[in-house]
């Protein structure tokens, strides 16, 4: 009887997860500005290229870097529309997604780079182009092994980090220099993210005796630690400038199917 209850609970959880995924609004598949561009090559279609599986180490560090790009984007949009940065988006379960992994049962997930919930509808009323561009930016995913995307693992921890630190991110002024105040906030966010990675690497290393796996985990940690506060702030500034010079809407406010970067 107990095992039947467990099976029912697992089935119910599966149904809830799939129901939430089905409820996500489909966004356009658009490569990130920092992504490589698809080039025709032997035995690889554009769709196969979009669905290529990413290096977990790079995916994790990219989620940190692009979170700051996102912060700069939100600041610029806020200035251009008069909508407070803290009101532009809400944290929580994602409601936007560009594509599924297309990998069936291969334990590959389409993982969000930026994991937040909804966009304030006021933005659509004030500037539909910015609204669509932001929607496509948030819906962007990368194909990764399921282990770095599971809700109870490092993926879920980073999801929570991104959603719960939006107010702190909004206190950074990316239209200027890395002042002491800006640096202090960047360092707090950086330290919080590093702690997530440290905990994951320690836990996974403890559970395996595979030396190659242990090295992969240490490489992940090293990659994240190579990202310093100056790099993070510069990424935020790049996001800010991208909105101000019009390149954000130029790139993300259109249907485009290139690399899934």
Strand content: 5-15%
Q: Give the helices and strands as they follow along the chain.
A: HEHHHEEHHEHHHHHH
Count of the domains: 1
Radius of gyration: 19 Å
By DSSP, the count of extended strands is: 4
Instruction: Report, as a whole number of angstroms, the end-to-end distance.
Output: 47 Å
Spatial order of the strands forming the largest sheet: 1-2
Mean pLDDT: 83
Profile the largest sheet.
2 strands, parallel
Q: Treating each run of at least 4 consecutive H or I residues as one helix, how many helices?
A: 12
Stretches with pLDDT under 50, minimum 5 residues: 4-22, 35-39
> Which structural class do the helices and strands define?
mainly alpha
Estimate the global geometry from the Cα principal axes. Answer: globular
Helix content: 55-70%
